[in-house]
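Example record used in the benchmark description.
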Amino acid sequence: MKTYDKLRKEALESCRFRGHKMLRFKKYGAYKDKGHSICEKCAKSVWIDCAPPPNGIDVSGEAVALGCIR
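Model output (structure tokens):
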């Protein structure tokens, strides 16, 4: 299992590679192992989950899959 900080850094690196300028990560509700961030320019998001379900993924969202449009 990867740590929250390691996943956050991986997600930010992927987003920056695609031209996004991500806002600060926020933890998802009361969960300490989930978080999300939004691109300041195009509003695409990225989600991280340190403990995904068996067939789940730890980094997901439009910002890691698609380039920034602005």
